[in-house]
Amino acid sequence: MRRSKARIIPLVLLPLILFSLFTLLSPSAAAQALEDEGSFFGVVMEVDQGSVYVEYMQQDRVNITLHDVSLSFQDEALAPVPHRIHISTEVHGDSADGWHVSVPFSSIPSRPGDTHTIPVRVETTAMIQDPIVEIDVQATYVPRGGDGGTTTNATILAVAQPNPRLTLLSQSTPDRFSPDEQRQVPMLVQNEDYYPNMVAFSARAPDGWVVTPPSSIQLGPKESTVVHFFVKAPQEPWFRVNPSSDIVTIEAEIVDGGMVASQGIPTPVSGWFLPGWVIPHLTLLLMGVAVLTKRGIEKTRENRLRKGAPSFPGLPPEKAARYEALKIAAPEKADQMKERLKKVHKDRKKEWKEAYKEERKKASDRRRNVNTRRKALLSQRKEEAKQKKAEQKKLDERKARREELLKKKQALQKASEEQQDRQEDELTDRMRDQRENRDA
């Protein structure tokens, strides 16, 4: 009886054991079991650096490492099918404008124990507003069924490097300056950086101009303001040869930033101007006036000499009336009378011409004599200068010979003295030797 019961129990439990093994070996069943147990799924995120500094309009990269820490089965046949990890980024700050954060893919497959390295690219643009933001990176482990996923967060501090940029614009172009006049020139200065900067002002002006820049100011990010430069024109004369084309250069510089913005301001000056082309024409005109004046003077002198030239003899009023009556009564006698008058005028004119020629000849001879005497005087002076130079040369030669003779004399005297000294020394030595020999 006991043997029959022992055989029946294994026969009854065998189907149950086989059913359980079949259920456990089924992949869908294993996956369903793991999906029901959400605590078996998870991901750990590691960031290689907690902050990143990005240059203006540049990009940088931060690597994040994902570790799949989901539970795995000892039996490979019971291993679940791959699940997915969704990755997303979000920028937090006063303003996210100008920041671009991206990852190469938003979802990746994963199995328990896998490790994934994902680069997070951080980029700044010209439209950046907030220089310091936080980048939130989220990794969500989603099971195959879509339920029971877990989320892991990591924060990266992103800091934009300073971008020292300035804009300097002229608000208005000044009109013509009067001499020694001072005006205010408004200039718009804008800080293009997304950091506050201290801005100093300076100016470069031509000679005579005086420019007073404003004091340094503090500008916030993207802030602009209007500053005034005091420009004073030089004390110019009322007349200038060329029109003024001076330019005053105004500069704004970021203190300790190395950025300089400049703006040139034309500064015309009112007054009377003389164009450059007038100068050569005026020179030619003056030369022509000088030549004409010289000729006019000569003509005047000639006219003065000609004042004594005889004129046609006229008749008194009574004789003129008789001459008219004679022309009617006796035309032949009137013609004879006219011929006599012409002959008298011709003789006088001939005498005057000869006298005038003689006077001109005398004047020419006087000028020729003066030129001759002047040339002779110049020649005499040159000859005297040559003679003086020759005499000076002779004196110099004599002086040189005298100095040479003096040197020779001094040399002979020195040689004589030296010879006398030698002779005395020899005599002294000879006497000493004789004395020593005598004593010996």
Produce a short descriptive summary.
With 440 residues, the protein is α+β, with helices and mostly antiparallel strands.
What structural class results from the helix and strand content?
alpha+beta
Q: Identify the CATH class of the largest domain.
A: Mainly Beta
**Overall morphology:** flat
Number of beta strands: 19
The CATH topology annotation of the largest domain reads as Immunoglobulin-like
Q: Give the low-pLDDT segments.
A: 1-13, 15-39, 73-79
Give the end-to-end Cα distance, rounded to a whole number of Å.
176 Å
**For the report, how would you describe the main beta sheet?**
5 strands, mixed
* SSE series: HHEEEEEEEEEEEEEEEEEEEHHH
Task: Name the average pLDDT.
Answer: 79
Which radius of gyration do the C-alpha atoms yield? 62 Å
CATH architectural designation of the largest domain: Sandwich
Can you describe what's shown?
It is a single chain. This protein has 440 residues and is α+β, with helices and mostly antiparallel strands. The chain folds into three domains: 35-160, Immunoglobulin-like (Sandwich); 166-273, Immunoglobulins (Immunoglobulin-like), CATH 2.60.40.10; 309-395. Helices cover 42% and strands 29% of the residues. It is built from five helices and 19 strands. It has helices at residues 2-25, 27-36, 278-305, 317-329, 331-439, and strands at residues 43-47, 51-54, 59-68, 83-92, 99-102, 107-110, 115-124, 132-142, 150-160, 166-170, 182-191, 197-204, 210-212, 217-219, 224-232, 239-240, 247-254, 260-266, 272-273. The strands form five sheets. It has a five-stranded mixed sheet with strand order 2-9-8-4-6, with no helix packed on it. Strands 1-3-7-5 form a four-stranded antiparallel sheet, with no helix packed on it. A four-stranded antiparallel sheet has the order 10-11-15-13, with no helix packed on it. Helix 4 crosses helix 5. The chain is flat, with a radius of gyration of 62 Å. Mean pLDDT is 79; it is low at 1-13, 15-39 and 73-79.
